[in-house]
């Protein structure tokens, strides 16, 4: 059975051994196992050993879904929402298998605010979310679909797929980001955070505390370390956030000891400004994570 739904978790398996686990809570992908080019199966996502998986708080790791605000809310319609919005801590519905063939297996999860008083009480907008997760032998795709179901109001939102890519943080490099303008959230003052910088590095590392929001990014990123490489392709997400807290991570309650050494986040998003959907319009943001052979680089 390539798809199993049990106890709030959806598990997809591929004949070649790849596997993905998705919690209905937050539609959070909490595990992606995929073979390296040499064939050995490896976990590709970091989840903190202190992460709570019981639905009491967003998962520290995997791929939380950020919607409708990124970071602390700034849009007037989002002011009652928590950091990164409600999609990552709401229970989604399993809506069925979308595809199941030799190439891969794909499922859909949905979130309708009508089912959640916790959302409609703070965000009385009409919209529908669906999330399609597709597993192939060396690849994981996650597509977020947003529909404005209102007959009369527009919908403005931000969205981001907050992957935690398992990798040695002190050895990774991320490219190509050179020449892009970015906002450095590690700057101590609001003025510093709001001032655009230009990325001068050919290969970006996260050896120090990094929280950078690159805008109008190319939509294709390579994360490379001595033993491996993952490519991220993004569509609909014009920005990308590179985050690793380094020692600042010790302040995060559900971060395991030195957990920040085990991952890098390279998060495709639409987070500078807002996607604006007119009544009945739809939008899709997609990320495709692919295990790469180092010899292809
Ligand atoms: O602790 P949270 O809410 O999961 O957020 C983690 C990080 O998420 C990143 O996307 C943000 O750029 C960071 O500023 C933030 O610290």
Short description:
The protein has 297 residues and is mainly beta.
N to C succession of SSEs: EEEEEEEEHEEEEEEHEEEEEEE
- What ligands can be seen in this structure? 6-O-phosphono-beta-D-glucopyranose
What's the number of structural domains? 1
Percentage of residues in helical conformation: under 10%
- Biggest β-sheet description: 8 strands, antiparallel
Helix-strand category: mainly beta
CATH class: Mainly Beta
Number of helices: 2
GO molecular function: carbohydrate binding; glucose-6-phosphate 1-epimerase activity
Function: Catalyzes the interconversion between the alpha and beta anomers from at least three hexose 6-phosphate sugars (Glc6P, Gal6P, and Man6P).
Protein name: Glucose-6-phosphate 1-epimerase
EC number: 5.1.3.15
Topology:
Blueprint: E1 3-6, E2 9-13, E3 19-23, E4 28-35, E5 41-43, E6 65-66, E7 93-100, E8 104-111, H1 117-120, E9 127-136, E10 139-148, E11 155-161, E12 165-166, E13 173-175, E14 181-184, H2 190-194, E15 196-198, E16 210-214, E17 220-225, E18 228-235, E19 239-244, E20 263-277, E21 282-291
Antiparallel strand pairs: 1-2, 2-3, 3-4, 4-5, 6-11, 7-8, 8-9, 9-10, 10-21, 11-20, 12-20, 13-17, 14-15, 14-16, 16-19, 17-18, 18-21, 19-20
Q: What would you say this structure looks like, in words?
A:
With 297 residues, this protein is mainly beta. It has one domain: Beta-galactosidase, Chain A, domain 5 (Distorted Sandwich), CATH 2.70.98. It is built from 2 helices and 21 strands. The strands form 3 sheets. Strands 6, 11, 12, 14, 15, 16, 19 and 20 form an 8-stranded antiparallel sheet that branches. It has an 8-stranded antiparallel sheet with strand order 7-8-9-10-21-18-17-13, with no helix packed on it. The protein has a 5-stranded antiparallel sheet with strand order 1-2-3-4-5, with no helix packed on it. A hairpin with a 2-residue loop joins strand 17 (220-225) and strand 18 (228-235). The radius of gyration is 18 Å and the shape is globular. The model has no long low-confidence stretch (mean pLDDT 97). The structure holds 6-O-phosphono-beta-D-glucopyranose. Residues 71, 83-84, 162, 185, 211, 241, 243, 267 line the site of 6-O-phosphono-beta-D-glucopyranose.
């Amino acid at each position: 059975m390539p798809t199993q739904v049990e106890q709030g978790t959806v598990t997809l398996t591929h004949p070649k051994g790849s596997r993905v686990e998705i919690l209905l809570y937050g539609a959070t992908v909490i595990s992606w196992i995929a073979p390296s080019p040499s064939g050995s199966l490896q976990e590709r996502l970091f989840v903190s050993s202190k992460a709570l998986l019981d639905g009491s708080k967003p998962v520290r790791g995997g791929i939380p879904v950020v919607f409708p605000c990124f970071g602390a809310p700034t849009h007037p319609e989002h002011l009652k929402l928590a950091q990164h919005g409600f999609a990552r801590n709401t229970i989604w519905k399993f809506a069925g298998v979308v595809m199941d063939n030799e190439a891969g297996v794909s499922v859909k999860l949905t979130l309708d605010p009508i089912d959640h008083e916790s959302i409609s009480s703070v965000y009385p907008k009409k919209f529908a979310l669906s999330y399609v997760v597709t597993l192939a032998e060396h690849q994981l795709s996650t597509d977020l679909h947003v529909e404005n179901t209102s007959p009369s109001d527009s919908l403005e939102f931000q969205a981001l797929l907050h992957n935690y890519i398992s990798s040695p943080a002190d050895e990774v490099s991320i490219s190509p980001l050179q020449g892009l303008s970015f906002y450095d959230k590690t700057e101590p003052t609001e003025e510093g955070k709001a001032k655009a910088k230009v990325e001068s590095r050919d290969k970006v590392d996260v050896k120090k505390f990094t929280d950078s929001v690159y805008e109008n990014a190319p939509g294709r990123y390579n994360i490379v370390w001595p033993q491996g490489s993952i490519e991220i392709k993004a569509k609909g997400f014009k920005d990308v956030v590179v985050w690793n807290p380094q020692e600042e991570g010790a302040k995060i309650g559900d971060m395991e000891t030195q957990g920040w050494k085990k991952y890098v986040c390279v998060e495709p998003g639409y987070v500078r400004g807002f996607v604006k959907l007119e009544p009945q319009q739809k939008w899709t943001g997609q990320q495709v994570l692919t295990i790469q052979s180092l010899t292809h680089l």
